[in-house]
Design a protein that fits this description.
Blueprint lengths: L20 H6 L25 H18 L12 H10 L5 H14 L3 H5 L3 H8 L5 H19 L7 H4 L7 H11 L9 H9 L8 H9 L7 H14 L27 H5 L18 H5 L12
Helix pairs in contact: 3-4, 3-9, 6-7, 10-12
């Protein structure tokens, strides 16, 4: 995915060392911000020809439609407590939630508390995390955040944004996942799916995640933010794919300015559906009961046929 930077020259004429692509990818594990300044509210800037009021109405209708399609939408990482969620979210960088869910059972069985993981031998953690990719960088992050929890927060995951982003590997996106799903505090999770869809829907033309967070947050009441994140991310994973969206199977097609970018034939579009919409297992090994009641299937454990 990443490309190597071409070698350049400094002022003294010495060649700069090339940075391997793998190193650049590993460095992409979400870095914490030193300060968590609140995102300023931004004025709603609708697409050309759409009034601010019309944009708000269309955006909220899309969310209502998605809520009917995915009434059981939930975080797709398996967790039983805030510590497991923050670790799993850090591990999910540049891999699937499914692969994280298949990897964390062994991790949490061996290191169930921040104290246990803080005292772990890095090489042993690396072996467990190897399936997640970039396991050395992720090992450093999860051991580091565990040490910070023990030393600075009494072994408990803090419930404030400004505290969470001081943990190694934890930035705003990870913090809002934890706040919204472990503490019930509203937040918008701006991952790659969220960014792609809100731009396709012309809710915003921003590209910076913090600015996207502010722009979309201005369209919805704060109480909707966490569920909105789930609805958008689920739709991006199942129907509105990056390379070939299944437009012909999309329940919000009449509301989408980007309709037609993907397959519009209903039968062909149906073959593009993923996870439970296409009859495949979801990403969690232990999904919520509401998901199972709706016909969703749990994912298989690591190594299962």
């Amino acid at each position: 995915m990443g490309e190597q930077d071409p070698g350049g020259s400094n002022k003294k004429g010495k060649s700069a060392k090339k940075v391997p692509a793998a190193v650049k990818k590993a460095a992409a594990v979400e870095k914490p911000a030193k300060k968590a300044a609140p995102v300023r509210k931004t004025a709603v800037r609708p697409p050309s020809g759409e009034s601010p009021t019309a944009l708000v109405r269309r955006a909220r209708r899309i969310n209502r439609e998605l809520a009917e399609v995915y009434p059981y939408a939930h975080p797709e990482l398996d967790f039983e407590n805030p510590f497991q969620l923050v670790v799993a979210t850090v591990l999910s960088a540049q891999t699937t939630d499914l692969r994280v869910n298949q990897t964390t059972p062994a991790l949490f069985a061996r290191y169930p508390t921040p104290e246990d993981l803080a005292a772990a031998v890095p090489e042993e953690v690396e072996e467990i995390l190897r399936p997640c990719g970039f396991f050395r960088a992720k090992t450093k992050s999860v051991i580091g955040l565990s040490k910070a929890l023990v030393e600075n927060f009494g072994g408990e995951v803090p419930g404030k944004l400004e505290d969470l982003v001081t943990l190694p590997g934890v930035g705003r996106k990870t913090a809002f996942v934890v706040l919204g799903n472990a503490f019930g505090r509203p937040g918008i999770t701006v991952d790659t799916h969220f960014q792609r869809l809100v731009r396709r829907w012309r809710w915003t033309d921003e590209t910076d995640p913090d600015k996207i967070e502010a722009a979309v947050g201005a369209l919805f009441p704060k109480s909707d933010w966490t569920d909105l994140s789930h609805h958008v991310i689920w739709h991006g994973r199942r129907i509105c794919h990056a390379r070939k969206p299944a437009c012909g199977a999309c329940p919000i097609a009449p509301l989408c300015p980007a309709y037609g970018e993907g397959e519009t034939d209903p039968e062909k579009a149906a073959k593009l559906l993923k996870y439970e919409k296409g009859g495949f297992p979801g990403q969690r090994l232990k999904p919520p009961q509401a998901y199972l009641d709706a016909g969703g299937r749990p994912a298989p454990p690591l190594g299962a046929a």
